[in-house]
Amino acid sequence: MEIIIGLPKGSLNNVNRGNTYQLFKDAGYEVRGYEPGNESYEINIINDDEIKAFLTRPQSTPVELNRGMVDIAIVGEDWVKEESVSHEGGITKIGDLDYGQTRLIVAVPADSPYFSLSEFFRLNKDRNTPILCFTEYPNLTRKHIMENDGYKELFGDSVPLVQVRGLVDGENDMVQIINSDGATEVYIAKGADFIVDNTQTGSSLKKAGLVELETIMHSSAGLYAGSNCVGEKLEKAKMIFEQLYGATTARKYFDVKFNVNNDMALAVSDFLVNNNYCSDEPTINTGSKFSQINVLIEKNKFPEMLNGIKDYNASSIVRNDVKQYVK
């Protein structure tokens, strides 16, 4: 049995955002040819010969899943939704991997007088030239626009024109949605009225002199399966997900060990449990004079816990990152 997986090219394998390569390493896979910035289109999973991996562009990954070119793939939910606006297809989510979070937003120049997309349309009702929107998400953008109250007041059920390179679809050429193929924010400076783009923090939009009007959807990376992924392949896909999810979950925790006098061990254990400083009951290894306490703790709780255990004269405190955490 062989399962074909698509691994994301771009921001989801960027060391400052997603680093899917590191995620696979943390999950126990030995990967060659997928190092960030040096990816190959054929990727080797050295220690699992049932997995065949290819590099995939997020924009085309749902297409490859729907057509059985890959069995499973890691991709953002925004791209899956973009592919399935007009038809459901055969893509199913095996699970969310809780990284690569982003938002799909509508943005306009920062000096615009609009506070919502509805207001934008209403204030442009007497306009004689087409309204131009650039985006990498023409399907989601058209759906969002057609559901907008301001648009419906002006144009009813008329379908906005969409252009993807030489392909044109739609009847309302007064509102034109044009595929941008990346670097979407620069089109405002070239004359676009608004854009639809994904953003994490909004900092790149601010640098481009833009402001958000509204959010269309929230998205994060997940493991998705195509219609070909059934039977043994589906079971293998679920196993892969569990290993990957264990690695993403582990990123939220520290593995902490420290020593206390034997007569303080139970009191420290109660302190940790009562304050929810551990995922499970602490492990206590008792020696002749000292006991070693081992606890798995959420990273954001560590400073508070550290301050607390000092009241019990904790010593030899060691903090380690966690690579895998499977509940």
Describe the model:
Helices cover 26% and strands 33% of the residues. It is α/β, with parallel strands linked by helices. The strands form three sheets. It has a seven-stranded mixed sheet. A seven-stranded mixed sheet has the order 10-9-11-8-12-7-13. A hairpin with a 5-residue loop joins strand 3 (42-45) and strand 4 (51-56). It is globular, with a radius of gyration of 25 Å.
Mean pLDDT across the residues is: 94
* Number of self-contained structural domains: 3
Question: Strand order within the widest sheet?
Answer: 2-3-4-1-5-14-6
Quote the CATH topology of the largest domain.
D-Maltodextrin-Binding Protein, domain 2
Unreliable sequence segments? none
CATH superfamily of the largest domain: Periplasmic binding protein-like II
The beta-strand count equals 18
Total count of helical runs of at least 4 residues: 10
What is the percent of helical residues?
A: 25-40%
Strand proportion: 25-35%
Tell me the name of the CATH class of the largest domain: Alpha Beta
Distance between the amino and carboxyl termini = 28 Å
**Gyration radius, rounded:** 25 Å
Major sheet characteristics = 7 strands, mixed
What's the architecture of the largest domain, going by CATH?
Answer: 3-Layer(aba) Sandwich
| Envelope shape | globular
Which structural class should the secondary elements be placed in?
alpha/beta
Order of helices and strands: EHEEEHEHEEHEHHEEEEHEEHEHEEHE
